Amino acid sequence: MTVRDIRLYGDPVLRTVAAEVTDFGEFSHTLAQDLLDTLDRPGRAGVAAPQIGISARAFSYGVDGQRGVVFNPELVETTGDQAGDEGCLSVPGLWFFTRRSAYAAVEGMNADGEPVRVEGEGELARCLQHEVDHLNGIVYIQRLEADIRRGAMKQIRRSAWFGD
């Protein structure tokens, strides 16, 4: 069991587009297990590989009884709207009003390189969009409306963890 440290906002790996995974063997299985082990802490809905310092297109999710890992995910469908507070392990202790699609579907591969599709509404939809953003070098702070983003950045800069 390997629970990896979470990289915090400001770390360059979080702002870099992650590399496609092409090695579906020992690497993908080890990464999948690390992502699931790191996810298995109270209050966690998803963990993207860049959040544990690995520039690879993979994330784990655990919402509404659904749990797994997706490699090379593509957001293939979104519909509807939802808005509410959203948080991020890389921005600890802070939650901000964020708009997302109410339904989302991703397609990618499992650790064996076999096709998978994960879809859902509400919190799962939010999670899928949030984690795919991480793989594209986007931290949810970038998705906030301008006035909320300004306030968020002030709070982040004042946080004890910022600049570590």
TrEMBL record:
Q: What SUPFAM superfamilies does the annotation carry?
A: Peptide deformylase
The keyword Protein biosynthesis appears for this protein = yes
Q: Could you tell me which HAMAP family the record lists for this protein? A: Pep_deformylase
Question: Where in the sequence is the signal peptide annotated?
Answer: none
NCBIfam families assigned to the protein according to its UniProt record, in alphabetical order = PRK00150.1-3
To which species is this protein native?
Phytoactinopolyspora alkaliphila
Name of the gene encoding the protein in the UniProt record = def
Q: Where does Fe cation bind?
A: C88, H130, H134
Q: Which cofactor does it need?
A: Fe(2+)
Per the UniProt entry, the Enzyme Commission number(s) are 3.5.1.88
Q: Does the keyword NAD apply?
A: no
Example GO molecular function: peptide deformylase activity
**Official protein name in the record:** Peptide deformylase
Q: Name one GO biological process term.
A: translation
Please give the family membership noted in the entry: Belongs to the polypeptide deformylase family.
